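Table S7 (text form). Paired inputs.
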Amino acid sequence: MQAPARGDETGGADGVEVAVVIPSFQQPFLLAEAVESVLAQRGPRRVAAVIVDDGCPMPETQETGLRLARAHPGRVHYLRRANGGLSAARNTGIEFALRAWPSCRAVFLLDSDNRLGPRLIDRAAALLEESGPATGWVYPDFDFFGIPEHASAAGAHSLFLHLLENTSDAGSLVARAVFEAGLRFDESMRHGFEDWDFWLRATAAGFRGRHLPVAGFRYRRRAGGMRLAAERRRAGILEGMRDRSRTLLDPRRLLALEAAEVPRFLLHRSGSAIAEPVVDPLRPVLPPLSRAAARRQTVEASRHPQAVHAPPFPVFASDAALHALSEGRLLHNLLWQAEILLRRVDAVAVTLAGGKDDHLTIERAGGPVPGDTALLVLRGATWQEEAALGTRFEAVARRAATLRITLPAGLAHEVPPVLAEAAAEFTALAEAFATRHPEHGEWRSDWRRPRAAAHQGYRELINAGAVLPWLAPVDGRDIALAVPIFELGGVEKVVTNYARVLRDRGWRPHLVVTGADRALLPEEARAVFETVQFPQAGGIEGNDPVAAHLGAPLPGITDTRDALGQLAPMHAMLATHAQGAHALAGALRELGATCIAGLHVVERDAAGAPLGSPHALLAHEAGYDLVAVVSHGLRDWCLAQGLPASKIVLVPNGPGHSAAPGTAEAAMAERELRQGPLRALFLGRLDPQKGLDRLRDIVALTPGVQWRAAGRAVLGQKPDGIPGLAVEPPPDGPAALDALFAWADVLVLPSRFEGSPLTIPEAQRMGCVPLVTRTGAVDEMVTDGLDGFLIPAGHDPSVANDFAARLAALAADRGALRAAARAAYARAVALPGWDIRMHDLLARLNKDPAP
């Protein structure tokens, strides 16, 4: 690089406070105008210009730079370097200024075809100094000349919005502290947006910008040029920028930014004089506003939507409703559901009812907002438009959707309706619009998106639709436990035990039901989950009608963006037989989440063809970090299908609940004295997998056996009947289940296929001897002839005959039955707890420290 030309030997080292760095390439005569605008700066601060000739091939550039430096010694400095692009030229000038002037407190970056108003540097420096160390730069509005226009950059600086569009030009005053933090322009970026990239990296280092109004920044705009060339390459440049700024795009960080800068909900609590701008109603970040202040803000946002933020979704709810939905773990899900629905309606009403059991349910309906609405979410654009027109509140709710929520008994009592309060607030807002000052808004144009649309930016930033409004309460990690249904069958019991252990290890488990709008959650199960998440209308389960992998249908979900947004706040996902999750795993993993597929059984249809999640997983295996299997047999199946051994982790199944102290011992003592007919129990889902037709034949072949059957069909499907045998509902809770096993001598499972059923160790623990088809991993749970009996798989008549023969033998030999009961009990009580079972999974899951 050529030595700097200057008019004295000190280079102005005697107190320069602001350096203006001016890169120059092929604009020699415009350069003189830029430098003269620096020399014309007014105010007490010492300002110097640093011209950086970026290897310009035009001799006039060097001539102009040298002439200006010689004419203004100590105030203008000329540097020439080999051509390296705009970023390199800026960095050269910055380095020179920082070394030459220890007194330099800030650097203004001025392109050689632009100009400064005479007070710009003095006013910008004063604002920078008064703003404190967190403010890294001051940026102006744009006064274009050449092609004339005036553009506004007004409003508080928002990093969330800055991620979506460049709200600060390079023509800004940057504090020395920013450069001393090691920040420079990326010299590999030679096609534009290098200033946007610089600002994003500055924000990642903890700095923020601040707007300087009426600054007098004169921006020359001509046809063509770097700006338009950059726009043509926009998609590719942004992809590279965002890859380098990946930490800024962490979904949890984005949610925190949204909450602090541009929250999407404005919560009105019944009877309160305040309104709360929030993302997560349980964890507000911004201070509340008086209702009057919130209305004024809404009015101002309608006038200056790019500069003033008003949350786009007003929410009305009582504390009782918020408490009931929070206790039911549904509050966050309902707000997420409402955001999706508000794309096509103007209001979403939530009604609450208490159920007769422990089910959580959600039902969707249309029509007008009902009078018993407990929570109301409105589309802010309609809310504002109708209020500004002075129409009736009923007009806001002319297009509505209703979410009817049934909560477990005791959670939904005395929840007041909110319709009257919402109507009163609408009237007050209409008055605020009617009495506003009659100015017509900002005279400058504004290219930026409305701040109220910030929540839509997740689509650009992480390719997600509606993002779950979840802010973590404390440090730790959130994990989604995804299942297609949750009716407390074997898989769901396992998932609940996983959640309990994960919570004990510092994780926050979230239940995500991917294929149903109801879940059976007793209080003890509900207590281990932070939230319960139902899917958007229609769910995300189902098969692609065309695409298949090795004969198994692939997931049927086509637009994954809302489903991805639902999972985006999670640090990890464990999807157990949730086929729809396969379509999300790869994208979720790209967002930094650990993704685990849980396998319990290899499913096939009635004809034996591949079916369901395990087979579809093989096509999506690259999207998962781990595959958790419940048996050695499943591990071997995964290896045979080509899954890497390093991805497979074994988590053996065990009893789904802990027995009450003394229960098993009492059952064993009673068995030693038991007489009478053999007691046989069937317990399970009422579907073909469980071999109900075989059970029918077994019952017919064993007239001397006392039978009981308990179970239900899944999700209201019509159950297969068992002629001659009345079917009881499943036991209501662990104590009733243990009592049922204590009643039975044998558990009969003539299944066509199984995984690793929890009913086996649960029965063994109570001394109930399992009698099961040799299928799946049952031979890992039963030692044939010792603590249970395995019946060979085969044709239905032979299977039924073998079951009947074994039952007859046990009925005739009470001593053999007691011996098997003792061995079954001994095996079950020696089983490790879930924390031990999950040891390897936890070790793999916790390989990275919690953020």
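Next pair, protein 2 of 2.
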Amino acid sequence: MKAKKQFFFTEYNMESYIESNPIKEVSFYFFTKRVLELLLCTLGLVMVSPIILFTAILIKIESPGSCFFLQERVGINGQYFKVIKMRSMKLDAEKNGAQWAEKADPRVTKVGKIIRKTRIDELPQLINVLKGEMSLIGPRPERPVFTAKFNEEIPGFIERLTIKPGLTGWAQVNGGYDITPKEKLELDRFYIKNASLRLDLLIIFKTIKICFTGNGAR
């Protein structure tokens, strides 16, 4: 299990980082947060299941292939996990390799544009939260290739891996895709340093607002 948690750092020769940056989720705050997450996600999945089902039908009608897809992301302390999302792009979206989503990305389907703007495509990640791979609030998890790339360009980017990644986060409600990786890091650093139930509540309210406005989506 230990090797699995360090897989990202082992693959990219960063073993020393994890030794000097142990898991920080050991306080009463994180315990309380986890209990609340289990309750909210269980209730949330029941409430949003009709939305997920209806969206899955629309995706299936528009294009062939699975309505969901699993994508490898980097979690706390470099542990890899499969994030669950509703498919918003064409099946051959990455035929040329991993690509960062762009504005008006031609790979996005018609249904995909709607569910990405409203963040419906992220709802299945409530399962990731229940499994303990993610938190409701935290830095958004990146793919291994982008995590390594951004850390080369922006030293310290992997500091985001010292807490669980989130379904939403401080960076997401303050720009999302519209901000640079460097700006994202600074916002995530702020959250890691000031994490509290009060700040989490503020992020949840801002996330709900974004779901209606579509700000920061691609």
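The two ends are 35 Å apart (CA to CA).
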